[in-house]
Write a structure and sequence with these properties.
The complex is a heterotrimer of chains A (269), B (260) and C (158).
Chain A: E1 5-16, E2 19-30, E3 34-39, H1 45-52, E4 60-65, E5 68-69, H2 75-82, E6 85-88, H3 100-111, H4 116-129, H5 145-156, E7 163-167, H6 175-192, E8 195-200, H7 203-209, E9 212-217, E10 220-225, H8 227-231, H9 236-242, H10 259-262
Parallel strand pairs in A: 3-8, 3-9, 6-7, 7-8
Antiparallel strand pairs in A: 1-2, 1-4, 4-5, 9-10
Helix pairs in contact in A: 3-4, 3-5, 6-7
Chain B: H1 2-33, H2 41-51, H3 56-80, H4 87-125, H5 128-134, H6 139-178, H7 182-192, H8 195-223, H9 228-257
Helix pairs in contact in B: 1-6, 2-6, 3-4, 3-6, 4-6, 4-7, 4-8, 4-9, 6-8, 8-9
Chain C: H1 2-28, E1 39-46, E2 57-60, E3 63-73, E4 80-87, E5 97-102, E6 109-114, E7 127-128, E8 130-132, H2 137-157
Parallel strand pairs in C: 1-7, 2-6, 5-8
Antiparallel strand pairs in C: 1-4, 2-3, 3-4, 5-6
The chains are: A alpha/beta (269), B mainly alpha (260), C alpha/beta (158).
Chain lengths: 269, 260, 158
């Protein structure tokens, strides 16, 4: 019987050398849902995605996908798991020497033995889902950033993955593209029956499509719940984030000396 | 002060050894991953085009000019001992044994090596390699190995072209311009250049250089820090480390091969 | 398509490389003189082979007719035993003589074969009986000095 949570993170610690990045994380990502992981820059959100994908190894603790641990030395097993995952990188990470069509066809050609005609049909359908079927012959350099992001999305879902991860999908997009992307994330998740993990700091768009939200600050989970819970939360960090307040638990000023000291007004006659 | 200096040296040595170890591991991992390339030979041939064909002009022109200079300088020196008939032999042996493989490798490091490093480094900076890994495709197999084998194939071809064009260059200067006897030029050359000892050894050298320079270029790109400065530094390192390695290997190989 | 034209250029590149290699081997090297013709071996004993090396040519009247194959020291006679690989197209009389000569004044050493008058030819495995060792420069000089000294003594006597 399949476990209810597709991805489970238990007691995860991760450090870069001596710098601890994540401490004592406990997270559940239930099947079929869109889960948003939010927090300020540098809070460790992207690191979580890389740990789930097996690109980084935790210092202690474990990540399981579908019940199987990700942190395995067996490369073949890791690659099998990755075939069921799709990842959208922050700026698209399209292969610049290939056309839009070839980019989306890449995972199909590499991981399946499907005949070319079938690949062609599948690619065109994926591009149709993101609205870029007629841009198939263009190169990444010839399309805008927002369009590149959508092509990357088509590529991430090319193999109909069980788990789709989005790394800052709204960063740097105009409002229209943002709305389109958010819409696509939700619709694709429901249409494919997959689980989506969304790392973002865009409150408005993420709250519209997420079923559950985790808030991260300095490597620890400070709050989690549904978007409604978050909006009405009394937690000072969540409040500062959701209402975009300038100062709160996350300070405005870089810590150090006071202004009086710097201007030399400390010693008074 | 001195202790800080010594600590810096120790750190440098430790980092170099680390790098060397990681490089060796990557090298063998890449070789291991190359097996699957036999079915996708097109990946290699595409790279041979980018690496080999695009280097033809610089290699050909350099070979010609080196041949010219060898012809001139050789003539001036041999003339003093009345042995200008040996000019063909001098030009051919210098090229086939040493200048062909070595100069081609140095030019290759500068032209093809830097472009490989920059390409891989920028792919890394744009997260293309990470994206490939997440799609369960091994970048060592898909990106690095085809370029490696293309370099290994292209280098001996380029070195042979360099030497051949150089011999022709020596002929043009020596026989056509200065007036050395044409028959003596070719006959002394043929008598003195041994196919196995000289030409084959030269080919072996160029293959070894191809392996070294291509892998150094690929590895520097693979290890580059994903920033503009990182890529710039990596391309410089490719040229410096690649050139020094070629010269060092040349000494080793010459000592091994040409001992009578 | 772009793919096919790339293949053509790559093919041309490889062909160019091979042509260059062939040019070097044939025009610059001695590939054309390597014959895969049949050979037969004969031996010759020398007191001193000087600087003779395996692979050195065996010439008669200046034409290359074979190569030096092996050089070994005979433990019983303490002479150098040289094996010559002769091309089958050239037959020499049994009483031919072998001399170790130097090409040029300071050049490579080779074996010069002078034909005798015997009606029977050398067969495989035969031994050339008449040999002349290499000229060792030091012996020559000491001979010269010795003869000069002897001349001086005779002048004194007279």
């Amino acid at each position: 019987m399949p476990v209810p949570n597709l991805v489970e993170i238990r007691d995860l610690h991760f450090a870069y050398g001596d710098r601890p990045i994540l401490t004592g994380l406990q997270m559940d990502f239930p099947r079929g849902k869109v889960i948003a992981v939010m927090g300020g820059s540098g809070s460790g959100k992207t690191t979580i995605l890389r740990l789930i994908g097996g690109q980084l190894t935790p210092s202690s603790g474990g990540v399981t996908v579908n019940g199987a641990p990700v942190n395995t030395r067996d490369n073949a097993a890791l690659y099998r798991m990755r075939r069921k995952m799709g990842m959208l990188f922050q700026h698209g990470a399209l292969f610049t020497d290939l056309t839009v069509f070839e980019n989306v066809a890449f995972p199909l050609r590499e991981n399946t033995d499907l005949p070319e005609e079938l690949v062609r049909d599948l690619v065109l359908m994926k591009l149709q889902a993101v609205g870029l079927r007629n841009a198939a012959a263009l190169k990444p350099a010839e399309i805008s950033g927002g369009m590149a992001r959508r092509v990357a999305l088509a590529r991430a879902v090319a193999l109909d993955p069980q788990l789709i991860m989005y790394d800052e999908p709204f960063a740097g997009l105009d409002p229209i593209s943002m709305g389109v992307t958010a819409n696509l994330i939700r619709r694709l998740n429901d249409a494919l029956g997959s689980t989506s993990i969304l790392v973002s700091h865009d409150v408005h768009e993420s709250f519209q499509i997420a079923d559950y939200v985790y808030f991260l600050s300095q490597g620890k989970i400070v709050a989690h719940g549904t978007p409604q819970d978050m909006r009405s939360s009394a937690d000072p960090y969540v409040k500062q984030f959701v209402h975009a307040e300038a100062d709160g638990p996350v300070p405005f000023h870089y810590p150090g000396r006071s202004l009086a000291e710097d201007l030399g007004m400390g010693a008074q006659r | 002060m001195i202790s800080a200096f010594l600590a810096a040296i120790g750190r440098g040595v430790r980092e170099s050894v680390n790098s060397l170890g990681f490089g060796a591991r990557t090298f063998f991992a890449m070789l291991g991953a190359s097996g699957g390339l036999l079915r996708r030979f097109r990946l290699i041939t595409d790279q041979v085009h980018f690496i080999g064909n695009y280097s033809l002009v610089i290699i050909g022109v350099s070979g010609l000019f080196v041949g010219f200079v060898l012809g001139l300088q050789g003539y001036y020196t041999l003339n003093k001992y009345g042995s200008e008939q040996a000019l063909g032999l001098l030009v051919a042996l210098s090229l086939v044994r040493e200048l062909g493989p070595v100069v081609t490798a140095l030019l290759f490091a500068g032209r093809a090596g830097t472009s490989l490093t920059a390409e891989i480094g920028l792919m890394k900076a744009g997260e293309q390699l990470a994206a490939m890994e997440m799609m369960a495709v091994n970048p060592l197999q898909r990106v690095l190995a085809p370029r490696f084998w293309a370099g290994v194939i292209a280098m001996p071809a380029l070195a042979a072209i360099f030497s051949a064009v150089g011999v022709l260059g020596g002929y043009i200067v020596g026989v056509l311009m200065i007036g050395v006897d044409e028959g003596a030029f070719w006959s002394q050359m043929q008598a003195g250049v041994d196919v196995w000892k000289d030409i084959a050894n030269g080919v072996i050298k160029s293959v070894v250089f191809g392996v070294a320079v291509t892998f150094i270029a690929l590895f520097q790109g693979y290890e580059a820090s994903p920033t503009p400065e990182g890529v710039a530094r990596a391309t410089t390192r490719t040229v410096v480390i690649g050139s020094l390695t070629v010269l060092g290997l040349d000494f080793l190989l010459t000592a091994l091969m040409f001992n009578t | 398509m772009q793919r096919k034209s790339l293949d053509v250029w790559v093919g041309l590149f490889v062909v160019l490389g091979l042509v260059a290699l062939l040019f070097l081997a044939l025009k610059a090297g001695n590939l054309s003189t390597i014959s895969f013709a049949k050979t037969y071996n004969v031996t010759a004993r020398f007191d001193n082979i000087g600087g003779l090396k395996p692979g050195a040519p065996v010439k008669s009247a200046g034409v290359v007719v074979g190569r030096v194959d092996k050089i070994a020291l005979n433990n019983k006679t303490f002479q150098a035993e040289v094996t010559l690989k002769m091309q089958s197209g050239y037959q020499f009389p049994k009483d031919s003589s072998a001399k170790i000569l130097t090409s040029g004044l300071l050049g490579e050493q080779y074996i010069g074969l002078e034909p005798g008058g015997d009606t029977v030819n050398l067969a495989a495995g035969d031994r050339i009986s008449m040999t002349q060792s290499a000229i060792v420069l030091e012996n020559l000089i000491s001979q010269f000095l010795f003869s000069k000294a002897a001349e001086g003594k005779e002048d004194k006597k007279q």
